[in-house]
Design goal:
CATH topology of chain A: Ubiquitin-like (UB roll)
CATH topology of the largest domain in chain B: Aldehyde Ferredoxin Oxidoreductase,  A, domain 1
Shape of chain B: globular
Shape of chain A: globular
Helix content of chain A: under 10%
Number of helices of chain A: 1
Low-confidence stretches of chain B: none
Number of strands of chain B: 17
Strand order of the largest sheet of chain B: 2-1-6-3-4-5
Largest interface: A-B, 26 and 41 residues
Oligomer: heterodimer
CATH class of the largest domain in chain B: Alpha Beta
CATH superfamily of the largest domain in chain B: Aldehyde ferredoxin oxidoreductase, N-terminal domain
CATH superfamily of chain A: Beta-grasp domain
Strand content of chain B: 5-15%
Largest sheet of chain A: 5 strands, mixed
CATH architecture of chain A: Roll
Radius of gyration of chain A: 12 Å
Structural class of chain B: alpha+beta
Structural class of chain A: mainly beta
Strand order of the largest sheet of chain A: 2-1-5-3-4
Radius of gyration of chain B: 22 Å
CATH class of chain A: Alpha Beta
Number of strands of chain A: 5
Largest sheet of chain B: 6 strands, mixed
Order of helices and strands of chain A: EEHEEE
Number of domains of chain A: 1
CATH architecture of the largest domain in chain B: 4-Layer Sandwich
Mean pLDDT of chain A: 96
Distance between the termini of chain A: 37 Å
Mean pLDDT of chain B: 97
């Protein structure tokens, strides 16, 4: 199944070059792939995995390992950031 | 103590400048800056005063930590009755002006009356005099700064001034200091202009040496700086990406007000985001962002310095916009961009420059353009009236409207009214995205429910900087709460409002609160000032300030009916994103908020509340 994987701010360095200008990558993943597995697959530094959203909804740290993705989901991740 | 204990009172009608002692009893009750200056305004003016009349007063004020070595200790505020809202106005700015004012030996300047001719105040430590500004009238803030520095042959002078917007009575004109920083909201620059006061120029070499316990102060400020440095947000995220990093976040959570809040997600968000500012342009191979920048004493350095593409159509024939300049912050990128459907990063940077150059609040200006574009799309306003085709998404229309408003020509005179007055004039008040006459900023209350309550109850009209619950609802600071829930938000908003009022009265920046609590601020204040400043005392001072501002607004004629959101947010559900199908739950939150505040069902502080707070 296909999902969209987005990495922002410092985490964008973990995207392939061609995806950096959009911050987004289309991923083909097997059914049942979890948020935690995608994070592990990209070797994202745990300290930088702060704000994790699936379709804009926040996924608590304790729920990430068990949260299965569905066809068409958008998984977006930010390091600790803030604005005003 | 870190207060200078001195106020400068400037009577512009008489042309006099006089020193007087700071009321130290009030300083113990209201701390400084926002709280203390509001106390002076309350004590000295009629809340029903016409904001643009000589009877209104304008106060430039520092906090006890302004000018000290506390991190971010460079803040000052401009306090007055706001012409945009008819409510209390308190606009906070960074840069270097506030610290210079304090280092000249002054806590506060109170301007009263109206000068018969344009003047600027020249302050050199104890020396204060009004000087002719006829040659500066009709010019920009940038020209004013350059001319005053050249005249005094001193590049280290710090200047706060108004541009043509303030002179022309643009109701959301701001006071600009250090070229790119601004006391931005509620039209404090229009009040300054109404007094024929063009600028305040300061050179201070006295310093701020009289802290209560210097050794304890050194320890407290060093420890607090370490907290900022060790925190991932204030130590890394803000310096590298600035506030603009929120553009993609808020779009993703479906809370980015787009095209005058018709939508909550903007398809062009990424093109105007922090990530885009870092990328090399295909046209000239350079990035929009040059570097970050810090205000006085700041160890965060979230400021943006940008340079536009010289070949961009908006500046190709205008070299004065080619240099490095204050870059886009999140609010400006939203208000000039997403709010109007404009996704041209270079054009937005230029529009932001015009706002700085002539002193206009980009939030209200941009949101007003959004309302105009919607009326244009509806056929209510025509090209012949505006002067240019103005559909959503037109960067050309945005820039032309910025120029005409700054210069006070054509339809710019209508834009100068802000969206509440302008939409009412053309028969569509429902298109104004305002509370108490002030445009709301970059967070849609349908997708972040706490911000709806924040806007509705903000004492200075819709504002994100009175209780930034985005920190909790989206970013998880200090704890994550559900942005789509209304339960618990009245308590959350009150806590943020009270803590923010204390920070705004200290001389430090509210952005420290991504890492600091009042518990980090208290030891710094306590070492700097006498009075036994604790976390609990600061929370109480914050609550006292909030209720004092509320009382001022009630006396000015505002009522509970003014604690409301635009109809669109209550009746037109979000079309996309996590909040799809939802409207703001403001009507549910308001009664609970009044209860939490200790107010009557009509939103009036009870006698018990007033007594408890010593009001």
């Amino acid at each position: 199944m296909r999902v969209t994987f987005k990495l922002y701010a410092m985490l964008a360095d973990h995207l392939p070059d061609e995806a950096r200008r959009t911050n987004a990558l289309d991923l083909e993943v097997p059914p049942g792939r979890t948020v935690g597995q995608v994070i592990d697959e990209f070797n994202l530094p745990p300290k930088l995995v702060h704000l994790v959203l699936v379709n804009g909804n926040y996924i608590q740290p304790g729920d990430r390992a068990g949260r299965a993705l569905a066809e068409g989901d958008v998984l977006a991740i930010w390091p600790p950031i803030a604005g005003g | 103590m870190a207060w200078a204990k001195k106020i400068l009172r400037v009577n512009l009608s008489k042309g006099t400048c006089a020193s007087e002692p700071l009321n130290m009893e009030w300083a113990q009750q209201y701390l400084g800056q926002r709280g203390l200056a509001t106390k002076y305004l309350v004590a000295e003016t009629d809340p029903k005063v016409d904001p643009l009349s000589p009877d209104n007063k304008l106060i430039m004020t520092t906090g006890p930590l302004t000018g000290t070595m506390a991190s971010t200790g460079g803040r000052y505020s401009v306090v007055t009755k706001g012409p945009l809202t008819g409510a209390i106005a308190c606009s906070n700015s960074g840069g270097y002006f506030g610290a210079e004012l304090k280092m000249a030996g002054w806590d506060m300047i109170i301007f009263e009356g109206k000068s018969p001719k344009p003047v600027y105040l020249w302050l050199e430590n104890d020396k204060a005099e009004l000087r002719d500004a006829s040659h500066l009238w009709g010019t920009t803030t940038w020209h004013t700064e350059e001319t005053i520095k050249a005249a005094h042959q001193d590049p280290q002078i710090r200047i706060a001034s108004i541009g043509r917007a303030g002179e022309n009575g643009v109701l959301y004109a701001c006071v600009v200091n250090d070229l790119h920083r601004a006391a931005g909201r509620s039209g404090v620059g229009a009040v300054m202009g109404s007094k024929n006061l063009k600028a305040v120029a300061v050179r201070g070499t006295v310093g701020v040496g009289n802290v209560r316990d210097f050794k304890a102060f050194l320890q407290a400020t060093t420890a607090a700086k370490k907290v900022l440095a060790d925190n991932a947000v204030t130590g890394q995220g803000l310096p590298k990406f600035g506030t603009q990093v929120l553009m993609n976040v808020i779009n993703e959570v479906g809370a980015l007000p787009t095209r005058n809040a018709n939508d909550v997600q903007f398809e062009g968000a990424r093109k105007i985001s922090a990530e885009a500012m870092h990328e090399k342009r295909p046209t000239d191979g350079k990035a929009n962002l040059i570097t970050n920048a810090a205000c006085f004493g700041c160890t965060i350095a979230c400021g943006r310095v940008s340079q536009v593409d010289k070949t961009h159509w908006s500046v190709v024939n205008n070299p004065k916009y080619w240099g490095a300049t204050g870059g886009l912050e999140y609010e400006n990128a939203w208000s000039l961009g997403a709010a109007n459907g404009v996704d041209d990063l270079e054009a937005l940077t230029v529009a932001n420059m015009i706002c700085n150059e002539d002193g206009m609040d980009p939030i209200t200006f941009g949101a007003t353009v959004g309302a105009v574009m919607e009326m244009y799309q509806m056929g209510v306003l025509k090209k012949e009236q505006i002067g240019i085709e103005s559909p959503f998404g037109s960067a050309q229309a945005l820039l032309e409207m910025a120029h005409m408003t700054a210069e006070g020509r054509g339809f710019g005179k209508e834009l100068a009214l802000g969206s509440a007055r302008l939409t009412k004039k053309y028969g569509h008040p429902e298109l104004s995205m305002t509370v108490k006459g002030q445009e709301f900023p970059a967070y849609d209350p349908r997708g972040i429910q706490g911000m709806g309550l924040t806007y509705a109850t903000s004492n200075r009209g819709a504002c994100h900087l009175r209780s930034y619950t985005v920190a909790s609802e989206i970013l998880g600071v200090p704890v994550k709460t559900d942005p789509l829930a209304t339960d618990g938000k009245p308590d959350l908003v009150k806590a943020f409002q009270d803590a923010t009022a204390a920070f705004d009265s200290s001389g430090t920046c509210i952005f420290t609160t991504f890492a600091w609590t009042l518990g980090d601020l208290a030891p710094q204040l306590d070492a700097a000032c006498e009075g036994g400043w604790t976390l609990e005392r600061l929370a109480e001072v914050g609550e006292r300030i909030w209720n004092m501002e509320r009382q001022y607004n009630l006396a000015a004629g505002l009522t509970a009916k003014d604690d409301d959101l635009p109809k669109r947010l209550k009746t037109e559900p979000a079309k996309t994103g996590p909040a799809k199908g939802m409207v703001s739950g403001i009507d549910k939150m308001i009664p609970e908020y009044y209860k939490v505040r200790g107010w009557t069902t009509e939103g009036v502080p009870t006698k018990d509340t007033m007594k408890r707070l010593g009001l």
